[in-house]
């Protein structure tokens, strides 16, 4: 009986706080209150099971993500993997991918999605770190690109 009461209270609290799965504009989100600007991201770390392997491979230096904003809204995303020996996304492209994007701020980390399909592309945290979790071959190895904005 206590369990049922606790579940009911948690459900009521979730509804009262306005939980939503809708894609949002990102209002109030520091990485999106940008006006008209472009942020360039480079790989900070390449994590393999909690170990950074980026220092051992120079081809990661060529991977770049560019997020463009127009009127405080997500606009264009460009992802360059030229030089990397594998793709971290399941999409078919040769080195560079460009599309319009939106952000889902109802989950943490926030989801960067294709505007036209709503499919998740990568994730962004409130401190603007972008991550790409991915798998290569061995199922016991978990990988993640961690990208940070390049300071101008």
- Over the alpha carbons, how many angstroms does the gyration radius reach? 18 Å
Which regions contain 5 or more consecutive residues with pLDDT less than 50?
Answer: 1-26
Helix content: under 10%
Helix-strand category: mainly beta
Residue-averaged pLDDT: 79
Number of strands: 9
Roughly what fraction of the amino acids lie in strands? 35-45%
> Largest sheet, described in full?
8 strands, antiparallel, barrel
Helices, by number, come to 1
* General form: globular
Tell me the span between the first and last alpha carbons.
58 Å
Q: What order do the strands of the largest sheet run in, or round the barrel if closed? A: 1-3-4-5-6-7-8-9
Q: Give the H and E element order.
A: HEEEEEEEEE
Detail the topology: elements first, then pairings.
Elements: H1 2-16, E1 37-48, E2 51-52, E3 64-70, E4 73-80, E5 96-104, E6 110-114, E7 120-124, E8 130-134, E9 143-149
Antiparallel strand pairs: 1-2, 1-3, 1-9, 3-4, 4-5, 5-6, 6-7, 7-8, 8-9
Describe the fold and architecture.
The protein has 152 residues and is mainly β. An 8-stranded antiparallel barrel has the order 1-3-4-5-6-7-8-9. β7 and β8 form a beta hairpin. The chain is globular and about 40 Å long. The N terminus is likely disordered.
Question: What is the structure about, briefly put?
Answer:
By secondary structure, the protein is mainly β. Helices cover 10% and strands 39% of the residues.
Highlighted features:
152 residues; mainly beta; 1 helix; 10% helix; 39% strand; disordered N terminus
